[in-house]
Specification:
By secondary structure, this protein is of the alpha/beta class. The chain is 41% helix and 15% strand. The protein is built from 16 helices and 12 strands. The radius of gyration is 23 Å and the shape is globular.
């Protein structure tokens, strides 16, 4: 027994209650321990000063960084082949901090009109109040972005694959245009993950993910990550610390654990999705199927050039019969659950018109091609035969 333990046992009940369970690990743990602590301790002012000052490695206070959040940041930087990575409390926190790192008052952002709803709201309603203006380009095409540019445009924000119609952005073309106009290209790579596509290699300046989706992969964590050059990521990280948008240790640990199987999950779920898309496209109850792997998808050729033959695990489809058909589909499904998220190991489905796109008017949705009968399927890693059987049961419902 160490002297410290002797002291603790000789101490009063309250002191023992606080200190007696504390242990120094006699052996190094294999796997990642969870550093579920708010702060770290130092043997001296000199040691603390060195870590605070950045001349020695270590951690100070979890909001500034923690071994678990650092692990997640290293992981995403490695996957995206980026010099630096950072972890945030959510995908929206990552987007907020990256935009604030790249733009200030008087600057202008161009984003795609069909951007994630939270991103649109952030730009249109919140950052506009801070003097950061935004325009929305109708399609994620280079010409539409060029037309939306202003002399003060500092940032393009695009999603590799959009929601819910799964349009594929020309990342190389957009990066070239951004750089020609003195702007940076920020890519939301949530739907594709670095296993399918690495935007930085195509010229993007920074990339981000809602790790709530595929990186975490098990529907049990809310987290965001960013990767890119040291200077931009350091700036975004500092903004996150200042705004209190840091990730907690346990969520970081869950996301890291999820990332270990990311490649396997993407391979399996994408293969399942390709088969589901073909099945849905041939089904009489389905009016239209949206999947970049289908020949008839408007971005199929670009998707093939960018993604090879793995087109991701998201499939959208429009049921004949609108909302009533959607309700029958949901009532008939057993395995496939209605969940307003994506990227889980389970196959889930969501209804964009009443969830992600409910803030738009019926006319705006119609113009974007979002029918009341549209469903967005996030295909999981279950046995393909079971997913197809459940789709058939739901479509017969
Ligand atoms: C979910 C999502 C976000 C937001 O992420 P949160 O973790 O919910 O904050 C951003 N972009 C895309 C494409 C998403 O799917």
């Amino acid at each position: 027994m160490t002297d410290e333990r002797h002291e603790a046992q000789a101490a009063g009940a309250s002191t023992r209650a606080v200190h007696a369970s504390r242990a120094e690990a006699p052996t190094a743990p294999f796997g990642d321990p969870i550093y579920q602590v708010a702060a770290f301790t130092f043997p001296s002012v000199a040691a603390s000063d060195a870590v605070f000052g950045g001349s020695a490695p270590g951690h100070v206070y979890t909001r500034f960084g923690n071994p678990n959040t650092d692990g997640l940041a290293r992981g995403v930087a490695a996957l995206e082949a980026a010099p630096a990575g950072a972890a945030f409390a959510s995908g929206m926190a990552a987007i907020t901090c990256l935009i604030l790192a790249a733009c200030g008052p008087g600057d202008h952002v161009v984003a795609q009109a069909d951007a994630y709803g939270g991103t649109r709201h952030l730009l249109a309603d919140e950052l506009s109040r801070l003097g950061i203006a935004a325009s929305f380009a109708d399609v994620p095409e280079v010409a539409a972005f060029a037309a939306a540019c202003r002399p003060n445009t500092r940032l393009f924000l695009v999603e590799t694959v959009s929601n819910p119609l799964l349009r594929v952005a020309d990342i190389e073309g957009l990066a070239a245009l951004a750089h020609e106009r003195g702007a940076r290209l920020l890519v939301d790579n949530t739907f594709t993950t670095p296993c399918l596509y690495q935007p930085l290699k195509a010229g993007a300046d920074a990339v981000l993910h809602s790790a709530t989706k595929y990186l975490g992969g098990h529907g049990d964590v809310t987290a965001g990550v960013a990767a890119g050059p040291d200077e931009l990521i350091d700036r975004a990280k500092k903004i996150g610390i200042g705004l209190g948008l840091s990730l907690d240790a346990f969520s970081a640990w869950l996301a890291c654990r999820g990332m270990k199987t990311l490649a396997l999950r993407m391979e399996r779920s994408s293969a399942n999705a390709a088969r589901c898309a073909a099945h849905l496209a041939a089904h009489p109850a389905v009016a239209q199927t949206f999947y970049p792997g289908l020949d008839r998808h408007p971005d199929h050729e670009r998707a093939r050039r960018m993604l090879g033959d793995t087109f991701g695990a998201m499939v959208s489809f429009t049921l004949r019969g609108g909302l009533a058909a959607v309700e029958r589909f949901l009532a008939g499904a057993r395995l496939i659950r209605f969940v307003p998220s994506l990227g889980d190991v389970s196959t889930t489905v969501t209804h964009p018109a009443s969830t992600s796109h409910r803030a738009l008017s019926a006319e705006e949705r119609r113009r974007m091609g979002i029918d009341d009968g549209l469903l967005r399927l996030s295909v999981g890693i279950e046995d393909l035969s079971d997913i197809l059987a459940d789709l058939d049961a739901a479509l017969a419902g």
